[in-house]
Amino acid sequence: MLLIEKQLQPSSLIVNNDWMPTQIKIFFDTCHPSTKFDFKYLQRLSLMECTPSDLDYINTSVSQCNGLQSLCIIMKSSLDTNVNIVDYSTIETLRNIAFNSTFNTLTELQLIMDEGIILDKQLHPNMNLTHLNISLQQVDDLFVLFDGLAPKLILLDVTLWQSDVSKQSLMRRSWSHRFMSHLIAFHLTTYKNVAMTFDHLRDIVMPLNQVKDFTLDIRQWITNDKQFVNGYHIDMVIRQYMPCLQHFHCCIQTMENIDKQVNVLSYNL
Description:
The protein is of the alpha/beta class. The protein has helices at 23-30, 88-98, 139-149, 198-205, 231-241; strands spanning 12-16, 44-50, 70-75, 108-112, 131-136, 155-160, 185-190, 213-218, 247-252. It has two domains: 10-22 and 38-76 and 86-139 and 152-163 and 176-183, no CATH class; 184-268. Helix content is 18%, strand content 20%. The chain has a nine-stranded parallel sheet. Helix 4 packs parallel to helix 5. It starts with 11 loop residues before the first strand and ends in a 17-residue tail after the last strand.
């Protein structure tokens, strides 16, 4: 064991289970604040390849980081096991991290997990987050996020994991622009087999009138909505709702023929 004479007071820390299984557990079990590691100076923390049991340390050691500004939690992927089980306990823990006053000093947050996180209007808004990278379960969870859960966001990166085409979506016909008035960069990725329609796209971009940088990455387009792959319609909705847009990157993976006659990148910079 490495013996440390002086107490460590790092401002940035990365602990990765990928380098060694149970590395996160070993670290927190051996570096409790009562020994040689002082968490109160920590400003940036990344926990990579986390297991659900690793999240127990969030409410013990990590909650003592009174000056924590940036937190990254990437859960260990279960895709290799071919078992798609939604871990609601993990979802609840990650929800509380994002929308709970325990971590009210955070301005940057990254929460990544298979199957995505579920959001609802019972969560408390986070008024301090400016940068958020999050895995969400369905497009409705994105609409909940837009509806005032993080109104100070400047940069938002979202991955959508699922869709239920038989379920009525919470699509909006109007938005309060004040909720996303600070957002200038938005990156939206869909995991395979997520049904994305033109109506979804329109309602997603509707409140983003201040966005300057928009990336749309559709991994596998599976709906029959031909408007979605029509260059003219995409160009029209973006020009209508995103007047400040300067950079637009669009990638749609599909077996359908995509109408590329209209150049949706021809914006006045």
